[in-house]
Amino acid sequence: GCRMWTLAWLGMASLCLGAAWAVPAKERRKAEKPKADLALYENLDLDNYDLTLDNYGEILDLSNYEELYDYGDLAPKIEVGTLAPRPKDPETLPNLGATAETPKLQPPSTAGPLHPAPFPGQGLPSCLLCLCVGTSVYCDDANLEHIPRLPPDTTYLYARFNRIGAVRAGDFTGLKKLKRIDLSSNSISWADVDAFRLLPSLQELILPQNRLTALPELPHSIVRLDARLNRIPSTGLRPEAFRDLKQLQFLHLSDNQLDFIPAPLPESLRSLHLQNNNIQTMHEDTFCDSQDHSQIRRALEDIRLDGNPINLSLFPDAYFCLPRLPTGRF
Ligand SMILES: *[C@@H]1O[C@H](CO)[C@@H](O)[C@H](O)[C@H]1NC(C)=O
Q1: Is the Cβ–Cβ distance between 276 and 307 less than 8 Å?
Q2: What is the CATH number of the domain that holds 184?
Q3: Atom 14 of ligand 1 has which residue's CA nearest to it?
Q4: Residue 298's domain spans which residues?
Q5: Residue 126: what pLDDT?
Q6: What is the torsional sign of CA 167, 168, 169, 170?
């Protein structure tokens, strides 16, 4: 009996050994040379990154970026009008501020801090008024006059076609996951300077067709700013407003009242839309460093200056680093 067990054991052991040897030679070599492989992966990553950036430009026609980018999070397409039950009388809308601050009416929470309710108290009003799908909040065309209180894990906010007049510093407080805010087509004439600055994940701030006369400060995470069709003069931009935004790729300020091209522009910038402003002149160093004629700004391939009084022929030394000449009057 004892011998049988030993034999069986040996059989098992050899099976295991066989399995070990069946590991492909490649895999074992990888384990033996972690340093070499690590270096290889780094190179691969860099290559892939370049490829991705190149492909991006091919897939997305940058000149049509505004139209194409809508619903980039691939949320299910939702018909406007089915978003929120429209109250018959606007006066019956719940008072968001009051509803959100009714701690006395809340039953004492029995759940521990690790298991909060999906939208603890304050998030509820926005998900009654709006449609919450996953972490996206859709408030389009919902007659809003203020930014609603948002669930703390909100990632995307769509509040287009409303009557929002201002964005306050407290409106987005603590929304650490918020990546995109779309407030297209409201009546926003004022945004507190800190309304967006402290949002650590914000990549896209979309504010076209409002009444802004000044831009608020932007977080360093911002990739795309769209403030087309507002009333922003150059004095509405802080000096060097975009210099330190190292992630900024799309800066769309067409149809405003700018007198100058905002400079310096970060190296990350790919698309600068300034058409239909009041730009009459520019500095030789706006796009390229006139002291460094070997400079190449491969990323900055989409500059629009058409619809401005500027005659681009008068600045022949301003474009040498660009992959393409700006669009405009020569
Ligand atoms: C722009 O300036 C150039 C050089 O002075 C001139 O030849 C050209 O006619 C101007 N173009 C326009 C549209 O005014």
Answers
A1: yes
A2: 3.80.10.10
A3: 311
A4: 254-330
A5: 77
A6: negative
